[in-house]
Amino acid sequence: MSFVEYSEFIQEGDVVIIFLGHDSMMPIKVEAGAQTQTRYGAIRHSSDLIGRRFGSKVTCSKGGWVYVLHPTPELWTVNLPHRTQILYTTDIANITLMLDLKPGSIVCESGTGSGSLSHAILRTIAPSGHLYTVEFHAQRAEKAAQEFKEHKVAHLVTVRNQDVCKEGFGVVGVADAVFLDIPSPWEAVTHAKKAFKRKGGRLCSFSPCIEQVQRTCEALLEQGFEEICTLEVLQRVHDVRSVTLPLPDFGPEDGGAESAKMASEEVSSAANSGHPSVTCRTATAPREMAGHTGYLTFATKPRG
Amino acid sequence: MADPAVDSDEESRISEGDYVVLKRADVYKSVQIEKRKKVIFEKQWLFMDNAIGELYGSTFEVDGGGKLTLRKPNNTEDPTDTKGAGLDNRHIVDDGKSQKLTRDDIESLKEQGLKGQEIIQQLIDNSTTFRDKTEFAQEKYIKKKKKKYESKITVLKPTSRILAMMYHGREPGKVCHLRYDTLAQMLTMGNIHAGSKIIVFETCAGLVLGSVMERMGGHGSVIQLYPGGGPVRAGMESFGFPSHFHNTLHEFPLCKVNALLSGTLNVDEKDMDSQSNGRSDEQCSSSQVSTGEGDESSSEPQKMEVSADPAEAKKKEDREKSREQKRVRMEEKRKRLAAAAALLEGRNADGLVIASRFHPCPVLLGLLKFVAPSRPFVVYCQYREPLIECYTKLREQGGAVSLRLTDSWLRHYQVLPNRTHPVLLMSGGGGYLLSGITVSADAAATSGAQQKSGEPAAKRIKLDEIKSTSDSSA
Known about the structure:
The complex is a heterodimer.
Chain A: E1 15-21, E2 24-29, E3 35-38, E4 41-44, H1 45-49, E5 57-59, E6 65-69, H2 73-77, H3 89-98, E7 106-110, H4 116-125, E8 130-134, H5 138-150, E9 157-160, H6 164-167, E10 177-180, H7 189-195, E11 201-207, H8 210-222, E12 226-246, H9 257-267, E13 277-284, E14 295-301
Parallel strand pairs in A: 7-8, 7-10, 8-9, 10-11
Antiparallel strand pairs in A: 1-2, 1-6, 3-4, 5-6, 11-14, 12-13, 12-14
Chain B: E1 19-24, E2 27-32, E3 38-40, E4 45-47, E5 59-62, E6 68-70, H1 103-111, H2 116-125, H3 135-149, E7 152-156, H4 160-170, H5 180-189, E8 197-202, H6 207-216, E9 221-226, H7 234-237, H8 243-246, E10 249-253, H9 257-262, H10 270-285, H11 296-306, H12 312-345, E11 351-355, H13 360-367, E12 376-381, H14 385-397, E13 400-414, E14 421-422, E15 432-438, H15 448-454, H16 457-467
Parallel strand pairs in B: 8-9, 8-11, 9-10, 11-12
Antiparallel strand pairs in B: 1-2, 1-7, 3-4, 5-6, 5-7, 12-15, 13-14, 13-15
Helix pairs in contact in B: 2-3, 4-6, 11-12, 13-14
């Protein structure tokens, strides 16, 4: 397994995602002789995981079962250990498209944070691209570097522990794309500009507050960036279910009783209560959902 | 790779034959560069000849004859003469007489060959209310006039971002109203990346196919399933991929999927194949706008009938030649079919992407059989109800987990000093997605009852409390 290449069978050292049920997953690192406790009982790595096919059903010691899934950046995003607030798949998807990322792209990112976006970038730019990621928090930088190694993507990424606003990305004239998720992105705009290839490229800045966006846009304009565009994307997850709506009773109807009965039969009358009702399959919007993650500001760095 | 010297200009020069995207303000148009070819863009004629040899990202001015002249990057921002501004609009009366220039005047200015910038200055000078307008209103006025009179065109290298925005803006019907943020979700949820084997079924003009190919970077393989006589690829062609990308692309007709699944597909016998091919073309093509590859058979026979007596010998020769060519093409087509069939037969694809005007349910259930376990799939539909049906069927059938029905909401912002707000007009809907991950479907344990027993009691109760649900969608 690797985050940039699928494999068929589980091997020692792999990270696998245990799928326990609806929206319930856990990542585990496969080690011979090790055991992982789930609420369905223990999973013995040597017999239950190693050599098995990704996607297969594993019966745990208490008789319950789980699925073992191949890791992807999207599964990692919902399972990773948080060291910071992270970017989720909806924003990541738009960042990836709007930054024109593809195999071979050279990307600069700051801060690395928990590496949620970093994994998605690495997946997209492999096998020939490179990610230069800058994290000013020493412990986080170290942890991220360690994760990249465990996930077999270390060859695609350089982690630097420095302040991007003061010291930049540590590279100049190489980037096709720059991504900023820092508290004061406007302070990093000049460094971002220097990081780009001569022919230019695309920049994205993620900020939760509109005041940050305002300052960033001013800085971008001042530095000659073009096509400055701010947008916001939210995802709604719909809950698919059957709902039953009772039919109202208008009382007996003269002469029309027959047809009314016909209609209710077509519609299906409720099994136990005897009250006529209609059941339909529908999808309901969530009662509560993430209403804001952050504004995404994109810009083009022109040639020069 | 970190060497700036490698960052040469040569690869970024526009050459003849290139597929490019023209941009004017927020409007895009995809064209292929050809010498002396008229292109219509935003009600304007133009010739792309002068763009050849220039760098991608260059901006051009269009003159009356449709000729492009390169704009120097330095003089892009032009100080417009404003002299003073009002504080509010209490004294501005709309009497329809504030502009002293008539329509005819403006036309004659244009005919004199005045630059857009000069016409705008004239409009400002001849507007009696301009000076009383607030600074913001003046800016807005100039911006509006610039949009109308300045014809600056930028030539861009195509990317999925640009083409997806172009299709959504110009021809949403051609891409089933797939919005670019939804396309972005598909590529990410589908974990599309270099080295995978991806199955694509789309009727989005080839945009989705092209976007998938861009993310694969020429590594791995893409199998396009197509309805009707041949795959539609105009959108994919607009990406202008290098030729080695095309080696990774395969196609397989949807109407042979059943035969492939049941093992009755015969790709070896030539006659059988060409016959059934012809038949399937007829069968399917009613719903399909014809495209390059599929219709070679239709044009040739006609040509033969039309020709007259005299050059009988030559005609015969031609006929022989064309028959030979046809045979070569058929053989080629058969080989490609066999190659695609072989790729599918392994039933080990790394992903499935569907975005079509067909009912997604049979497409998904049929094509999912070719996907390996533990691989993501994603289905786009303009409407929600068909995806509800897919969701329900997949739950009954098993073989997939982490099913999610989603849509996304996109809002653009105007960010300007003291004038920041959401853009007035937003897109009402960008379609719906059903995504999930395949798992091994061992026949025994996929019934609903067992799934329930696998669910811990405590969690079920909690879930039920939260959602006060009647349905066990867990």
